[in-house]
Each structure stands twice: as C-alpha cells, then as structure tokens.
Design brief:
The chain has helices at about 20-30, 50-60, 85-90, 100-105, 125-135, 165-175, 190-200, 235-245, 265-270, 310-315, 335-340, 370-385, 395, 405-410, and strands spanning about 1-10, 10-15, 40, 65, 70-75, 85, 110-115, 140, 145-150, 155-160, 180-185, 205-210, 215-220, 225-230, 250-255, 275-280, 280-285, 295, 320-325, 345-350, 350-355, 365, 385-390, 415-419. About 30% of the residues lie in helices and about 25% in strands. The chain has a four-stranded mixed beta sheet with strand order 22-23-1-24. It has a four-stranded mixed beta sheet with strand order 2-15-17-16. The radius of gyration is 21 Å and the shape is globular. The structure holds ligand EPZ.
Length: about 425
C-alpha cells in the first residue's frame, strides 16, 4: 500500500501541465466498440482507471496499442470476441458501465455486471437501462448482471428522470447505430459529454445539441476510423487552484480552458487571489488567506461535485464561514472526519457541511476513501503544520497523473512512500 508523506505548510510556485480528462477519456475509449476501424486517441492520461478500462477492453478482444509516454492510444475492435463484462472488472471501476450501450448497439446482445455502489453513494444505473429499453432493448437483471438484447436498436425520445453523465453518454453511444433519430432530453451538459460527442462525430456519427439539455442523434449504418484529442482535465485544474488558494504562492496552469470550468472557476476566483488568463494558460497568485466560499454541487455548468472536497479544504483555512451542499451524491463527505482530525471546524447536517475557517490545521495520519476525498486531503495536508501521512493513495492515482511529482515540482514537500 502506498502513502504520501506531506510536510506543510507549503508555498507553491511554478507551472503545471494539465493531463487529459479522465472522465472524457473513459467514454471515448468505450466508443471504440462502436466501429470495426481504428480509433486514434491523443492526450491520454496515465491513470489507474484508464489502465483498468484498457484491460477490460482487451478482454473483449479490442486491439490496443497504448504509449503513455507519448500519451497516445490506438484502439481497434474489429476482432471483438466477447460481449461479457465481468463483475471482477466492473467492481474495480464503475465506469465500465459505459461498455453497455456501445456493446449492445454493435453486437445485439451483451451481459454487463451491475456496478454496485461505491464509497460516495449507491450509484444506480436505472436511467441507463430505462433509456435502452425505450430504444427497444429487452433487458433483464439476473445474478447481478444486466442481460440486454436488441437485434437493432431503434431511435426514441428519451427523457431521463435526472441528469446523469454516464447515462447520457451510454445512450448517446447506443443511439449512433440505432435505426432513426434518438432525442435525449434532460441530457448532461458536462464538457466530457461534449468531448465524447466530438469524437463520435469524427467517427461519422450524426449528433447535434451536445452541451445542451437536448441531444439529437441520427443513427447511421456504421462508424469509421477517426482521431481525437482528449480535452484537458478541468478537475485537475480546479484541484491545483485549490492547492494554491490554501497554501499561497503563484502558479501557471498550462493548457487551461475557462470554457470547460463552469461555475467552479467563478467560485474559486471568489476565494480571493489574482487570476490572469494569458498565453493559453492561467496565472494564479494567492498571497493572503483565502476568503470563505459557499457552494452547492450541481450538474454542469453548476459547481462540480468532483471539486467539493478540494474546496472544503480551502474553506477549512479561510477567513470566514462557508456552507457546502452536496446535492449530487448521498455520501460524499467521507473526507470531513479526516479533516476534523487535522483540527478543521466542520459540522455536517444532512447534505450540508458548515465550515468555519481556521488559521492553522495540524498534520495527522490520514486515510483516503475515494478519489476526490483524497485530493481534498492532499490540499489540507499541504497547508497543515507538520508531517501528514495519507494512506491508500491508490484512490488518488485513479484520477491524477503523478500528483506527488507535480506538487514537488511546485515546491511542495510531498514524497510517495512504497511499503
Ligand atoms: C460521472 O459519474 C463521473 N464519472 C463522476 O466522477 C462525477 O462525480 C459524476 O458524473 C457527476 O458529475 C465519470 O464520468 C466516469 P451521474 P456518473 O450518473 O455518471 C444518480 C470522479 O471522481 N443516478 O451523473 O456515475 C446518481 O446516483 C467521478 O471522477 C441515478 O439515480 O454520475 C447520482 O446521485 C466520481 N440513476 C446522480 O444521479 C442513474 O441511472 C448523478 O450521477 C444514474 C445516476
């Protein structure tokens, strides 16, 4: 089990390069299942979840040439030889559910393990299933698996009961090869959904409305070879901005794109500091204690739930009181008790955390519980007095490329310990 040893308080300076967005790369890799020609992907991040998905796709017969040094990956599913996605693979990464739509559209029959819950919540996939049934799929849930059959999916008007990112992505991919037009209403508007649509269109799909709450897809006979570059990771950008807001200093975030940040960027700017978009990146400078900022997590362009733990760490050392409402997931405050052990003054009432900022936090031995909670703990440890040890750092490696190295290059004292 690997740990991070973080000695604070830190001041950060230097520049960072954002890696490709995990939550764009995962559905885009699954899109390769829709065509029997090559899909060339650039700006691929070397992440645990990406490697897990590549293992899963290989088990289905997808040919894969990945080069993490060059950040490229070529996928070709012409030799697709299996339509079963096992629990062993799905339990390690829920995003495996993104194989359901494309595999069903391509093969007509598929058996995908239900993902089950995770640390942050139950994470049901009823909307994925209901949408595919609307498109004519015959679906039964048996022994923890989704058995889906459809000789040919047909276009349908689907109105999801709630906004779901991977639900929208699954249905959009399935609709690409369906007979006729599919309209997805109440669609997710996340930049990662838009990036997937861009990739699908480069493969010959007919899609419009991506980025709005109504996406129209005209089914086509087949998709063709294509190339696509994954967008930068907006959550990585936001995480580093939280680190500088908590610690102070000045950093330059290369390949920063304000258009994909949504409300999170506006909220981070109201923490204080100076923000200057220049030379294709973002210069951020904080030389005083951050201002408390309240937020309510909501679908894009609202405040991203994936940024909630990191902002809480900033509020833990800010100069006032902040209210953080987690309205997306029912159990996404696992980082609170760990931050309280560092002296943070946080009270949780239902889905609201009341954070009273304090001048100092103290280092502690910490336990990461999920990907974004661990990012919040890293931010808190950077600003805390003393040496913190963060255990189970594999959670962090699922979604951040070399965060220890990137932080050390900014002057932080972060060391990865392999036990
Ligand atoms: C995606 O998860 C992201 N993962 C999550 O990022 C992110 O937190 C989440 O969207 C919200 O932005 C990927 O893109 C791989 P949802 P997803 O379906 O699609 C409920 C990270 O840290 N719901 O938008 O699984 C659900 O329980 C990860 O990178 C249903 O009830 O999230 C939740 O309360 C964590 N039925 C809400 O909707 C369904 O069929 C939003 O979930 C689907 C979802």
């Amino acid at each position: 089990m690997e740990k991070f040893k973080v000695s604070g308080p830190s001041r950060l300076s230097g520049e960072i390069d954002l890696d490709g967005a995990k939550n764009a790369c995962l559905p885009i890799f699954c899109a390769s299942l829709l065509s029997s020609e090559e899909l060339n992907i650039f700006n691929v991040p070397r992440l645990g979840d990406v490697q897990t998905l590549l293992t899963l796709l290989k088990s289905l017969g997808v040919e894969i040439e990945v080069d993490f040094e060059r950040k490229t990956c070529v996928l070709n599913s012409k030799g697709l030889c299996s339509n079963i996605v096992s629990y062993e693979l799905v339990k390690t990464m829920r995003a495996s559910i993104l194989t359901l739509g494309p595999l069903l559209a391509r093969m007509g029959e598929v058996k995908v393990s239900l993902p089950g819950g995770c640390a942050i919540g139950q994470r049901p996939v009823d909307q994925h299933i209901k949408g595919l049934e609307k498109m004519g799929a015959d679906i039964t849930l048996r022994d923890g698996y989704i058995d889906a059959k459809a000789n040919k999916l047909r276009g349908a008007r689907i109105v999801t009961d709630l906004i779901t990112v991977t639900g929208t992505e699954n249905l959009m991919m399935a609709a690409c090869l369906a007979e006729g037009q599919t309209v997805i209403e109440n669609a997710a508007r996340e930049p990662e959904v838009v990036d997937l649509a861009c990739c699908l269109k480069s493969m010959g799909a007919k899609i419009e409305g991506e980025g709005t709450d109504i996406i129209r897809i005209e089914g086509v006979e087949k998709l063709i070879a294509a190339s696509h570059r994954v967008i930068p990771d907006r959550i990585e950008a936001g995480t580093f901005i939280c680190a500088i807001a908590a610690c102070g200093g000045q950093i330059f975030v290369k390949n920063f794109d304000r258009k994909i940040m949504g409300l999170a960027y506006e909220k981070l700017k109201s923490c204080g500091g100076e923000f200057l978009e220049v030379n294709g990146g973002l210069k951020v400078k904080f030389d005083q204690r951050p201002t408390s900022v309240s937020c309510q997590t909501s679908p894009f362009p609202g405040f991203a739930t994936d940024m909630q733990a990191q902002l809480m760490a900033v509020n833990a050392v800010s100069d006032g009181i902040a209210l953080i409402d987690e309205s997306i997931f029912e159990n996404r405050f696992m980082h609170v008790s760990e931050m309280q052990r560092m002296g943070a003054d946080i009270k949780v009432k239902g889905r609201t955390a009341i954070v009273q900022g304090k001048k100092r936090l103290s280092a502690a031995k910490l336990m990461a519980t999920d990907l974004r909670a661990s990012a919040g703990l890293v931010v808190a440890a950077l600003v805390a007095d003393g040496e913190s040890l963060i255990d189970r750092i594999y959670h962090l490696d699922r979604g951040y490329v070399n965060m220890d190295i990137k932080l050390a290059e900014l002057g932080a004292n972060v060391v990865r310990i392999r036990e």
